[in-house]
Structures are given as C-alpha cells and as structure tokens.
Amino acid sequence: MKELSSRRQVLGAIAGGVVATLASGGSAAAAQTYNPPALRTWLSLNSGWRFHKGDAAGAQAAGFNDAAWSATSVPHTWNASDGADGGTDYYRGIGWYRKHVTVPADLSGRMLFLQFAGANQVADVWVDGVHLGRHRGGYSRFRFGATETLTPGKDSVIAVRVTNSPDPDIAPLDADYTFQGGIYRNVSLWAVDRLAVRMLDYAGPGVYLRQRSVTTVSATVDVTAKVFNNNSTSRSVVVRAIVTATDGTIVADSSSAEQTIRAGSGLDVVQTLTIAKPRLWNGLADPYQYSAHIEVRDATDGTVRDVVTEPLGLRHFSLDADNGFSLNGRHLGLHGVNLHQDRAQDGWAVDDADHAQDFTLIKELGATAVRMAHYQHDQKNYNLADGAGVVVWAEIPLVNHITGSEAFTTTTRDQLRELIRQNYNHPSIVFWGIGNEQRSDDTPTNALLAELAGLVRSEDPDRISTYANNLDNNAKVAGHADTVAYNKYYGWYGGSYNDLGGWADSLHRADPDRTFAVSEYGAGANPAQHALNPSAPSAGGSFHPEEYQALLHEASWKQLAARPFVWGTFVWNMFDFASDGRNEGGRPGINDKGLVTHDRAIRKDAFYWYKANWASTPTLHITSRRWTSRTDPVTELKVYSNASQVTAVLNGSMLGIRSSSDHIFTWPGVTLRPGSNTVSVSASIGGATHTDTVTWTLSGTTH
C-alpha cells in the first residue's frame, strides 16, 4: 500500500467509558477554567553528592566513610575528558556516588520514589544499605520505590553504584560514539498519595493519551489512567479527565463511574473525550498544545488525592510512497538533523540550559524534524521539540550488533518499552526507531527486529515504526518496521556526492510502494582547515577542509529537495561529538560531521547553507570566513543567502551584483591585495538591508 497512516486501535480495557464534549471555541461550558491542585511533591537531589572512580567494597552502607571521595553534583560523567581525546582508552568501569538526604517531615505517610533520569549503563541503588533495585540500560528514566527505606525527618544515605563496563546483555554493544559513564542526568524524589496514578509503569507517566480521531471539526482522545492503591484496605475511586487550553479554559471534561480498587493493586481507567473544533499541533507553523489533567478522587470522602498533567498536541499524520510525509492532511517536508546528547567539557552531563541552547540552534537552522540518535534522550529534549513544533524520530540504542541471548533480547525489549511509555504523550514524536545499522542480516538479527516491530505495534499502534539501514536496499533487516530509512554517505565513504539522487530514483523505481527516508548523510569538517573547491578528502585522514563539507551538503540537499517521495532527510550531525576511537580531521576523539562545533561556538559554513534553504529568517553569510590567512591572491567569494540578489564589495571597490535561484552567490577570480582585505556583502531581505563582512590577509606571495 502506498498510504501508511497512523492506525487506530483501543488501548487497554474500558473502565467507565463516559464521553464528554465541550466546544473549544466559545460555548458557555468552555468558559469554565481549571487550575490543577499541586498535590505531588518533587524534590531535586542533584546537589551534595560524593563520588569515587572505581569500586569500593561496602560503600552501600550508611556508615561507610566517604570523606576521601570528591564532592560533585549531578549531572556527572567520568568520561567528559578521556572520552573525547582519542585512543579508544577511556575509562569503562565502576563509579560510586553517595548522598545524605533528609526527607521533609511533612511528607510522612506518602509514597516516596527515587527517580533517575539517566545513568549509564547499569545502576544499583541503596538507601541505608537496603538494595532498592538494579536498572539495566543507559538512556531511559527509572524509578525505585523508597517508602520503606526513606523515613521523613531522618537522615539517610543514598548510594549508587554505576558501571559502563562492556556488557554483552545490554545494547549498544558498540557504536561510533563514546559510552560515557555516570549519573549523567537529573536525580529527584517524588512524594505522592497512597492512592495515585501509578509511578512504576516502566517509569512512564501512568497517563496515556491516545488520539483516536483528529480533524479540524473534532478530536477524540482515549485517556487511560493507571491508578494504584497502595493503602492496606480497598478504596473506591472516581477518575476525572480534564483537557484545558493554554489559558486554562476547559475544553473537555469527564468523570468515570465509581470503582473499587483492592489494597496493593491497580486499575486502568479509560475515558473517551471529544474536543470540538480543536486547534491542532501543526509543526513549526503552530505547535499548539492543550493540557490533559487526571484527577484521582477518593469516592469515600470526595478528596482529590492525585493529579497528573500531560501535554496534548492534537495532530494526525501519514506517509505516502510518492508524496512523503503529511501532517494534518498537508504535505510537510521533513528536513532536519541527527542529535547526540554530548558537548565539549561536559560530555553527557548536560543540563536544561544546554538542551535549550541546542534547540535554539536547531530552530535557527529551520529544521522541521530531528532524529534523536541513537538512544532515548532526556525528557527536556522531547519537551523542547513539542514546543518548537519539530517532528521527532525517537529510537533505542540497538546499534551495529546483537548478542543472540535471551538476556540481550529482554533488555532491548525493556529499553523500547521504556522509550514508548515514558514518551507516549509527546506530540512531536511520530516515529519509533527500532535499530540502526545492524551489520548482519542473519536470522537472529531479523528475529529480534521483527519482535521489536511487533512490540511497537502492541504498545503504540498509532505511530510509525522505522529502522535505519546501511546494508543493501533489499536487506531483510529493512523489512520489519512500518517504514525504512537509509544511511548514505555518498562523497564521504565512497562514491560521489552527486550519486545520492540517482540512488533514490533507482530505489523508488524498483519498489514504488516503499516509503523511505535518508536517515544519515554528511561529511566531516574542521573549521580551522581550508581549501578552495577541494576534492574529496580521506574520511579517516587528518585534513577535513570546511569547504568540502559545504560542497557535499550543497549537492546533497539539492538532490533531496527535488525528490518529495523521500519522506525525511536527516543531516549527520547537528553537532560534533565525542567518539574516542576516531583520529581524523586534526582532532583526535571527535566525530567532526557536525554543522556546529562540539562546544557550540562555531556554526560551520554548511549550517548557513541549510539556514538559507530552510529558515524564513534573513540569512546572509560569507563562506570560508575563517580562512583568514591567505597565500594565493586569486580566490572565490561565495555567499549563502535567502535574498534574491547580493552585492559584493572588496576593499571599497564594487565586485558586482549577483542573482541566484539556489541560495548560492559566487564571484570567481577575486584578486586579493597584499595585507588586509575587507570583503563586504549586502542584500535586501524582507524589506530590510543586511550586511556581512570578513577580513582576509594575504601574505607570503610574490604576485
């Protein structure tokens, strides 16, 4: 079939089934507002930790002497430096963390949960020497119940043993990035009522918003609340579901029938709400989000015991083998970048401000989509994508190879289930990735991919599963997910950068019903290395001129933009990132294919090529601007801009006015004078005049 739409299927057992409809646009009922009560308590536990690199016998005990350990805070990793300096010799082993904590006395009687947003890769957690549990997998959030071990008003010690040692039972086994160890995301404590939405559903929100039918006329949503009774006796509950607009106006409201939950057990309550004339989540144009609030009410006394609020961005989407991706019934070209969670100095220990800066740059670029490679990212990134209107491909870290063991299969399934449940309600997420670049097309690999594709269909039948393939076009590994994408490095790892379009045409002709994307393409670039119109450098060599990366992306994007049947295109990568096994481009330990440098300080020329093509904001950029010291007096001036005409001036003398239909403006045969040369360009964009200026110094010439 050429059409692949978001499928609709009931999730969970119906309990209650009340339908409520309120207009989004102005009825008397819609004028009511709702402000959710703050019934849950969240406490950050990021500060006040002590850390020891290596194993430490008995460190889980409350009385263990950690005075010699170093003081630290989380997020933290022990590989920020040695994982980005080359040599494939970064530390992979054990690290210990300890922290004293006193839970406020007024939280007595509530359920307590320790939450870790991410620790790589196996984490064991103790409180006062009592083992709470072990989490396997380095990228997903996890929680442990701590009600019996943390006593409000009493000092306790949390001890965490983390290891990033190679483990044959956990994906990824290997990949082209550094596997940094540590508690590299936030740690917190949740306190909730004993009658509450479930906290231990694979650390998901316990509330799942299934969009059954969405149009501009109405939207129908199944709201599943997983309620758990932690009391010692049965409780009768009523679950209320309220959807509000951004100003708090109620647009849908429903209450379930009264139901009884036995002690120590749970119940899924599903209600169907319909929103009339909804405002849709419409990508960059209008990333509008409602809020869905779930109240758990004790029916005996009428008290609201718990409230959970989740984002609700209403949208529908589809893939077509000829026309690519559509959002809300209209074609949307998905063009964007791959994103790693790594940055200079900090490694994986990035904070919310770092994530926000990354998305500011992605938005500046004009990307409509992001592939969050090669693993589950921090919740902050998905929240930012929701708010920006960027479509997301989220994936698990099944990279390169598998271990044909039941243990490996189990942990991989768990990572996929955690990814889906923890991120189910994010409107930005459209694609679930089940793997990347499996190097073998053998039976065990295909059996695992088939199982993972089936798991996506059972957990979330409405979104689209995908897979990033680097084997033959018709490899069996490419046939399990709903759609497939290809990692194609024409012009870098062989071939010419002019081959990409021909490859896509050939695949489309051979299999016209196949929907496919380009999940990776790109080239390395050191912004301190330069050459005029260079030929392809050695991918593994020490010279990666910035100009070649720009040439490759110019050619690649022109070919991809002309082929709307390719439903998505993702540059590899948005940022340079640590890969300790690399030594190329003059920078050991760095994969330099980013459009922006590892420290986010330099937007490479290729960044502005895409900005000129994708963004609506004015773009005027002189390329090779960092090639400030010249020895050849004859050069080329090249400018990227979304203007129709650009004027260039060299040392006060007019070089001329150029027009362009492809955002590239060139002045060949420009002759520099000895010493300092000032190049200025100007253009009218959107009724305003914009300028850009560089200085190039010519030295060491006899001309």
Structure description:
The chain is mainly beta. 14% of the residues lie in helices and 38% in strands. It is globular and about 85 Å long. The N terminus is likely disordered.
Helix content: 10-25%
Query: What is the average of the pLDDT values?
Result: 95
Count of strand segments: 44
Q: In terms of per-residue confidence, which ranges show pLDDT below 50 for 5 or more consecutive residues?
A: 1-30
Main sheet attributes: strand count, strand direction, barrel closure: 8 strands, parallel, barrel
Side-by-side strand order of the widest sheet: 27-28-29-30-31-32-33-34
How far is it from the N-terminal to the C-terminal residue, by CA?
Answer: 65 Å
Identify the overall geometry.
globular
Helix and strand composition category: mainly beta
Give the DSSP E fraction (strand runs of 2 or more residues): 35-45%
Gyration radius from CA atoms, angstroms: 27 Å
Write a concise keyword list for the protein shown above:
6-stranded antiparallel beta sheet; 703 residues; 8-stranded parallel β-barrel; disordered N terminus; single chain; 14% helix; mainly beta
